[in-house]
Amino acid sequence: MAVHGSSPNEAQPSGDIARIWREFSWGAIAGAFGEGMMHPIDTIKTRIQSQAILTGTQV
Q1: CA distance between the termini of the chain
Q2: Are 52 and 59 in contact (CB under 8 A)?
Q3: DSSP one-letter string for the chain
Q4: Residue 8: what pLDDT?
Q5: Could you tell me if residue 7 is left (phi over 0), alpha (psi between -120 and 50 degrees) or otherwise beta?
Q6: Gyration radius from the chain CA atoms
Q7: pLDDT in tens, the chain (59 residues)
């Protein structure tokens, strides 16, 4: 049975907050990078598809 007490190996609350913000920041950077890379490709794809619909051709 473990005794809950204050030991040097326990995580500090400020360390947990810093870890959460670090993970949040990296997630935001990854999301922005992914969206920045895919948005131009999706725009081109959508324009090609809508052009095919307007002209009546199949891609």
Answers
A1: 67
A2: yes
A3: -------TTSPPHHHHHHHHHHHHHHHHHHHHHHHHHHHHHHHHHHHHHHHHHHHT---
A4: 54
A5: beta
A6: 25
A7: 455 555 555 556 788 999 999 999 999 999 999 999 999 999 999 999 998 888 877 65
Tokens of 8: 């040097």
Amino acid of residue 12: Q
Q: Would you state the structure tokens that stand for residue 37, as one six-digit string?
A: 């890379």
Which residue type occupies 40? P
d(CA 26, CA 49) in angstroms, rounded, equals: 34
